[in-house]
Design brief:
CATH class of the largest domain: Mainly Beta
Number of strands: 23
Bound molecules: heme C
Radius of gyration: 23 Å
Order of helices and strands: HHHHHEEEEEHEEEEEEEEEEEEEEEEEHE
Shape: globular
Strand content: 25-35%
Number of helices: 7
Helix content: 10-25%
Length: about 425
Amino acid sequence: MGLWGLLAAFFAGQTGVTFSHDVAPILYSQCVVCHRPGGVAPFSLTTYQDAAKRAALLATVTTKRYMPPWLPSEPEFAHARRLTAAQISTLARWAASGAAEGNPAETPAPPVFRDGWQLGKPDLIARMRTAFAVPAEGPDLYQCFPLPSPAGPNRWVRALDIRPGNPKVVHHALLFQDITGTAWKRNNGAGYPCFGTPGFLPARGLGGWTPGAIPFQTPADAPELLHGNATLVLQVHYHPIGRAETDLTSVALYFTDQKPRRTIMDVPLGSNRIDIPAGARDYKVTDHFTLPVTVDVIAINPHAHYICREMYGYAVLPDGSRRILIHIPHWDFDWQQQYTYATPVRLPEGTRLEMEFTYDNSAANLRNPNHPPRRVVWGPASTDEMAGLHVEVTPVDPDDADELDQSLWGKMMRGLGGAVYRGGR
Ligand code: HEC
């Protein structure tokens, strides 16, 4: 044992933090879902050696909350990927004390990941018709693929799983249904490019896949309608890794005979009047909607592109109190997803839903795709911007669905919310 080894052993003795006893349980519950052989992350963290040689880096990325990737700072969501302060401190003390192994016999067994569909035998499997070639180099690609699948009656979807053919290059994937026939028309044999939206309306998402996520499931009494004559359209975000790769992703759907007992409705907050001057650091986009009926908020889905920095969604209740529906202090387009509340949020009639997104179009924003910064307007390309906060609600009294629908229609007719530039160059 060299001097560092002796020092390490000494410090481990002082702090008592070891891989076997303290670190492995954290990595196995929070990291190896992605950091494992064949996983989406660039290296594995399943063995002592894997972790020990990166101990300092593990401490840094967890202290900065860069890993595990999880954007909202509040509120509580189901399936949150967040370390506790105690876990972060354990990783930091382990690195500082020389990353001792401890007693290998004490190391828990790493979790086993099933290769099959996680929810059992699917009712329908659809896959891309031909493998997509992902080049070695170049920008990220967003490609839409209509998936061949037999027409059928209208069906109710209770769950959805997506299996990336090549997890090294598939960053995330979303499934839509197209009832307009557009996707097949735009298909050039290998899908068609689609950065922001899949290019047809309505583009109702059925669910998605992000690395490490559990399969998407609807609330038991509110399955999603899949139109009998709809085409399933898969939007895949590819990330080149320095080597040419191919991908053939498949999706699995699970149906139910249970008709919905309540409807989940999308309250879209946002704006398409976005015009951000080059260099503006604090450009705000706001919108609001007053709920005409009492609802439970089930999930929330924020969307913007690269120069959005911070996202706020909140509710102002009739008594004037405020509830944060989502706060993302550092937006990262690469890790977008839908968030489901740990418990549905009840909001009484008369509650005002508010959104405020802040954009940084300065050169100081490392994610700015334009160097030097250029004026950025609303649009679907990666160099354009968008602002959308989709609040998924269900009326507490099912008879209220029509009233909410009318009111949402009214909002749409009045046009989307305003974008206000409040200086800050
Ligand atoms: C949802 C998947 C996922 C989870 C969970 C996850 N990671 Fe990662 N991690 C990635 C991906 C993908 C990358 C490479 C791309 C990037 O850096 O964003 C990465 C990169 C890293 C890096 C390299 C960062 C750098 O700057 O080079 C470290 C260190 C790391 N992860 C540690 C962890 C630790 C520790 C945990 C658990 C506490 C964890 N990760 C959980 C997906 C994940």
